[in-house]
Amino acid sequence: LEYARQVGMPLAIEPLHPMQAADRACINTLEHALDICDALDPLTTSATGETRNAALGVALDVYHVWWDPKLQQQIARAGEERLLAFHVCDWRLPTRDLLSDRGMMGDGVIELQKIRQWVEAAGFAGYAEVEIFSALDWWQRTGEETLDTCIERHRSVV
């Protein structure tokens, strides 16, 4: 972590949906990820009380955390220092495949505009990264159609 701090390239922990706890991830909420950040990389040094830049933060992927009743509170807790990435897509109902059935923004149940407002209110000024893992739908279409739809939906839904 010290090297990450020295070179100005913080590392991000990305919590994954609890349905992936058995085989892919042991960090399943933003709160848990932030607890780890605070334990491994305190932003205030105990000796002097001075604040330092984060070497460890979180990647917020709406697909994995949209359901969390503490999401708004934890996004605010992360703040500008710990919020390093923002990934968007949508949660389809019904979900046909946990890993590769992410919906295009606007095709599911995630309140994307609300979450984006929370992220921006916390000080995040980076890009919203579109992550459409969609073997059964969008990967079957042309790249041009998928990109055009991503652009239109990002503008109108996110």
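The above is record 1. Record 2 follows with the same two-line structure.
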Amino acid sequence: MAEDDNKKRQEFYDKTNTELDVLLDEIKKNPDDEMAILRYAKKLEINITIFGMSKDPDGIALILERFRKVVQEFGQMTQIQNLFATALANSMSYLMKKHKFDTVNDRLEELRIFARSHPLNMSCQRSLAGGLVNSIINFGQRKLLKPVMEIIQELIILANNHKENQDMQLCLAKGLVNSMGYLSRNEEYEPAIPLLDELMALTDDFPNDEDFILQRANGIVTAMNAFAKNDGYIDVVDELEAELERMAKVYPDHEGVQLRNKTRTLGRD
């Protein structure tokens, strides 16, 4: 059975490489054809998703190696920068699911270096922010709290450098919810409190945005459940409960808020 699986896998590799080589040949024939370059790069990005959904880290590595060569030759093109940064961030998500933690860290470092080499490209900065959120989850799930604390500070600095960009701020909100959650669930209450405060302040700036409202509710419920385990934080829990009830009244049509107020869990959207 394993032999059949390996055979099918190799056949798919061969088929993928053949399709990609056809597109690559178009570029070799006319290196100035930007549409041909973009077709190839988009196909590479799509194949990251295909191999990721197939839970195939080797396939992801194969595609990224091709992508790096494109970046070396055509990295001055903004769309190539965007696609490569997206591919790196997406690869991290898929590799996490396969528990390839060291490889996830390598891809984050590669994404950091790439984003810093293109500081004016906001798509690259957003991809880095997303990669940082993925890494918080990566370390938090394994109860590695020191890197969680380091990465959330990196994300705060990155987002503060781009306060005008709402996507970046939403990444920060998600990072704050997750990092505060992992810390507080592991009884690291003191470092979690400032992150909760930061989340409240951030979401105060977006009172009418459904995504930020949801992250605020997520943070409140996460903190309520974690801090309730320690009698020393009963006042904090009471304040959070009152805030969640206030939100339920202010946002009667927000299903996420209503669900969290009713169940006191993150539930399902």
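Residues 2-29 form the longest helix (28 residues).
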